[in-house]
Amino acid sequence: MSCEEMEMATQKHTQGPRHSKEDLNRLNQAIQQLAVEVDGAKGQPCELEKAKDLAALQEEGASGGAKGKLAWLEGALQRAKQDIARQLREYQELMIVKLGLDFEIATYCRLLESEESR
């Protein structure tokens, strides 16, 4: 197998992690948007704060529907954060494997080139 073929194979196998990185970037953006909503934008009440206020009003009116929805939203946010953390760990593991493979390929290319020069 020539160096060019090895490089093509390496490029083929690195496409998966690139797509994973793009997915991670999209999910990170979604988390940042949720964090902005949770924290509120420059003192303005965010949707989550509005939901909390609504839950308090409905609780006073003997209705807990918004409170349940708020709990569900907070749970969904926590699950999304856990999913992002899991995907990040998987991505890091893939990058470690990729770097090892890149190192091996470079080593074999050098060996092949030195063998061809003999």
TrEMBL record:
GO terms for molecular function: structural constituent of skin epidermis. InterPro entries: IF_rod_dom. GO terms for cellular component: extracellular space; keratin filament. GO terms for biological process: intermediate filament organization; keratinization. Keywords: Coiled coil, Intermediate filament, Keratin. Residues 1-22 are annotated as: Disordered. Residues 70-97 form a coiled coil. Gene3D superfamilies: 1.20.5.170. Residues 1-118 form the IF rod domain. It comes from the Eukaryota. This is IF rod domain-containing protein. It comes from Marmota monax.
